[in-house]
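Q: For a teaching session next week I want to show students how multiple molecules come together into a single three-dimensional assembly. I've collected the sequence lines for a complex. Could you give me the predicted structure tokens for the whole thing so I can convert them for display?
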Amino acid sequence: MRSARQSRLSIETPEGVVFSFELATPVTRALAWAVDAAAIGLASYFVAQLCKLLNPLSADVASAAFVVSYFSISVAYAILLEWRWRGQTIGKRLFGLRVIDVHGLRLQLPQIALRNLLRLVDMLPAFYLVGGLTAVFSCGAQRLGDMAGNTVVTRERQSEAPDLERIAPAKYNSLMAQPHLAARLRSLVTPEAAALAVRAVTQRDGYDPLARIALFGELAAHFRSLVEFPEEAVESLTDEQYVRSVLRVIYGG
Amino acid sequence: MIVDIPRFVAAERPYWDELQALLDRTDAEPEHRFALAEIQRLHYLYERCSAGLARLDTFSTDPALRARLESLVSRAYTEIHETRVPRKIRWKALFAAFPRAFRRHLGAFRLSVAITLLGCAFGWFAIRMDPHSKAVLMPFEHLLNSPAERVHQEESAKTDRLNGAKATFSADLMTHNIQVTVLTLAMGMTWGAGTLILLFYNGVILGAVAADYVAAGFGTFLTGWLLPHGSIEIPAILLGGQGGFILAGALIGWGGRTSRSDRLRAVAPDLFAIVAGAAAMLVWAGMVEAFISQYHQPVVPYGLKIAFGACELVALTAFLGWAGRE
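A: Of course. Below is the structure for the complete assembly, covering every listed component.
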């Protein structure tokens, strides 16, 4: 059986612009829910202590208050928090997750209520087996509640701007002297290749010297194949210096 | 092609900042109504930011910059393209939304009733044909005794067996019945099969109990016992079934040309109204069951209990049938 799961949800606006969200994995969601379960447990403990204050008045009323409070907390916890915190609970905040509408629209209370009430089915027969399996095999990593509510759980964007001063110090950059070629290079380098180059530079000291030379040789050759700079701009650059200059062009402008 | 990225960013940043400030304001004040000029400005800034994102799309630019633009465009897109009601709960509207949602999906409710009645008929005939099947059909200890024995115990009781436990009993009933109702609705995600099974099973128990008591000649006791809370509790579970079939209908989408996602989106507010209404009904039913239904003649005359249950049923029918009509 092949998983139909995607790792990103892309939304195209009527203007033709595409923005995307990274979908949360079932494991991260399970961890977030474990935190939420602990939060519910903690809240219930405090409510139980409060209900005990009613004991002198009536043990029956105290017990009823606890039963109703515990039930209300377990049902309303996720609904209220996701509604008030725009798709987040304590666990989701901690793990950088957020529930969003599948079309990128604003989350509505009925959607949030449905996705949370349908946990009753997702939890069956035990340990979220139905929900977990559905999330693994559905294309938007949705459990049944997400499908009914038209929601997906995404990972919040984490901007990881590379430390330019470490990977490509702001010295004279001969590539920048050719602004049109630099712009062309910027347009041709894929984000994956740029990320690979950043990793190579940041982890350079961990490589075996020969492997490092070969790696930077390959990266430089790749970047050289995209745009040919004049000889005088690159003649004194080693492969590693060339890669660092490229990174400065991409990230530093 | 953007030749000079820093220059492009420097030129556009004030617009991005202005858009962010506007969006932050909509987050902080969800009820704020923008003036026309502000809406036009928001739209302009959204289009400008979208254009910037589209231009950056072909570049391997700083991921943080791209992430910021994507975030701004997605938030502005949400504000501009969202046409549904705002986030605030309008209790008065919800009160009217419940009967309206019920009436909009009467077919699903009728199906829910029909399956429960089918279950009732099965339970009734099973008990009449084979009285020994009681233990299988009614897995509740207090129902396994003979009706005559139970009626005698209840009517001759000198003490209140629920004394000091009524509130807890009531709370247990409320939470349990709400769970059953929500589960009946949620089971709609099994294309309605789970909802159907739960409703049928509920019907079987109801039919079996009715057959047992009626056959023993205790129909009045049964009506007096069940009607005060059952006139609200049973319809609430039927409403859960109605929700389940609405969900199943949206999932299956017979003959429709809209996508599954659009169908589910269209029924979500009605499902929410139905489940919220049913939960409120079950809170009432839980109180009635603990504080009234468990008391029998001579403490509370059966006529009074039956009249009370009938009044509730009439009030509920009137509410679901006429409330919120325009």
